[in-house]
Amino acid sequence: MRPEAGGGAGPGSGADAAPVLEVTDLDKRFPVRAGLFGRGAGWVNAVNGVSFEVRAGETLGVVGESGCGKTTLGKTVMRLLRPDGGRIVLHGRDITTASDAELREGRRDIQMVFQDPFSSLNPRLTCRRIVAEPLEIHGLGAGNEKEDRVAEMFERTGLRLEHLDRYPHQLSGGQRQRLGIARALALEPSVIVADEPVSALDVSVQAQVLNLLRSLQRGSRLAYLFISHDLAVVEHIAHRIAVMYLGKVVELAEKRSLFSAPRHPYTEALLAAVPVPKPGRRRERVILHGEVPSPVDLPPGCAFHTRCPIAEDLCRREAPPLRPVGASHQVACHLRGGDAPA
Fold first, then answer.
1. Nearest one of 296, 291, 284 to 307, comparing CA atoms
2. pTM of the model
């Protein structure tokens, strides 16, 4: 089964002008400890100066190699991790340094769907209790009202009512992910952070879950921050795409612009690795030489210059800012940005 292409309300199809989620210069670092006494030996710059915004009814895809900081970005936006710098603004309210009480209220507006649909669900609770738990925590609904809300979430996500009293281990992988989505939807959030939500599923089930996310978005104008390493998946669900490399966004563009005319050499290499689903057609291979730098000891200048086939001396000295190369296209490259020759 193939996911539905296109569709959904995006920036070019009447999305609200004001973003529901704004992230500015977001930083997240982790200490590296070594030695017998665990002394500090440096910092891992997992997220380094990331900025973006997401509007109602829009899906922003975040892609990149494993270890580029995608998941850390999602958890930091959710405030599951405390940021070390920057701002996170949800519906005009700054939640960067919000207290636990303020976060408790704010999380009604932003929920998360995790990568592993099994480990993210409490195995001791029935499916009914798993979906009802957010309602109980936030004091929403009671008695029949709560039961009706849970049943509604099951119907919206394609789960049968006979699953209500089953446990997560009694469901298939696709059903468990639908259950995770139902739990996230229970509080009627406006933003959902989806961290690799289909990577653990079979291809046919992936398509079903992607189509479910699309239909839910059309019905309630949800905003998605969709994190994935699979460009083919992101191509079908995203309106705009941010490409990350070693904690930074190196390219940000509308989907069609990015796939038809990528500007950053790293994006070109990622796209060249995507299989073409048509017999006899092949993409031109882009082979990157050199090693990925350590996030503990990033090189000066552009972090990609150690693998970049077009790098020059300027790239080794100065880090390029993310700057516009069109109406809805930004790239962090000295040689491909602004008035630089392509």
1. 291
2. 0.89
